Amino acid sequence: MLKTEIGSSDRLLAELRGWVEAETPTTDAAAVNRLLDRCQAELAAVGGAIERLPGRDGFGDTLVCRTPGNGAPVVVAGHLDTVWDHGTLATSMPWRVEGAKAHGPGIYDMKAGSFMAFHSVREILRQKTRTRRPIILLLTPDEEVGSPTSRAPIEQAAKGARAVLIPEPAGANGSAVTARKGVGRFEIRVRGVSAHAGGNWSEGRSAIVALAEVILKIHAMTDLAAGVTTNVAPIGGGTRPNVISPEAWCEVDLRVPTIPLGEKMEAAIRGLAYERDGIAVTITGGMNRPPFAETPEILALYAQAKALAAQHGYELPVQHRGGGSDGNFTAAMGVPTLDGLGCPGAGAHAPHEHILWEQLAPRCATLCALLEEIG
């Protein structure tokens, strides 16, 4: 049973509120770092071994905290950045608690889960709980844009790790995650030839028309039976209705269940680039997150989590999820990775974002017990 005292859901919610009210859009490194400062100070105060990796490319820092112990560590990783701009809290998504739901920007994805990871490690250190393995906690700044600066520290921490725990939000039915699709991201830019749309139509080469043809080909690559989806958004181009468009662009999201399909689809999308008859189509990008495939070792980790959840009074179903997370990186390394260990709720990236706050304590207790007991 759990050796570390976690506290009540009311207490956890009160502290979590401070995290939610500290708005941390990915694009504001200073805002992310202010919340990291708070986390660093509290973890250092209870004896955590702190490493702070400076941010780059306009992103915030990455915080790494280690607990004492020998052997292969258990890694737990969460991100502090959200998709919500400054001012969201004061305008469209104020903090509020309505019955079993607590609302606020980023509370579900994934400040509740990252707070649970932070709180568990802080209390293990503060209460001097002996864990079977050392713990490495990572709090990262850029997951919402593909983890361009935090992927390397996450993979470095996971090398030789016994297991990785990802407290991304639990599913709508409270489920953990044992597999995720891989994610590809591409940018398409088309250069055409401008001309007057009335007097010189034949001299123009429409970048918008060329882009539309490429978009239809990408849309046709979706194969639901094979688990492959594509989506084009956003798109843009053109200047005025009476000008043949000399430029157009779009972005593409790709989801695949396996590494071979990812390689095949990446080649197919990039193969749509061409240059002829005044049109040039340039395609950049590729697979951003490798697929997270379920393995017997991951299922064994899930079985341990399910048993602990039962001890804390709730069922823990399991699901495979289409969205990616930082768990994709570590699972692809062959490290047993269990995801979706955060708080249930709904509305990720949507105005109705919320958690079911009464589940904070039992869910946090399960996460803490996993950190204590994974052998």
UniProtKB/TrEMBL annotation:
- The record's active-site residues are 81, 143 (proton acceptor)
Xref: InterPro entries: Bact_exopeptidase_dim_dom (IPR036264), Pept_M20_glutamate_carboxypep (IPR017150), Peptidase_M20 (IPR002933), Peptidase_M20_dimer (IPR011650), Peptidase_M20A (IPR050072)
Sorted alphabetically, which keywords does the UniProt record give? Answer: Carboxypeptidase, Hydrolase, Metal-binding, Protease
- Domain Peptidase M20 dimerisation: start-end pairs: 178-264
Pfam hit, one: Peptidase_M20
CDD domains membership: M20_CPDG2
Q: Which GO terms describe its molecular function?
A: carboxypeptidase activity; metal ion binding
Acetylation is among the record's keywords:
no
Annotated protein name in UniProt: Glutamate carboxypeptidase
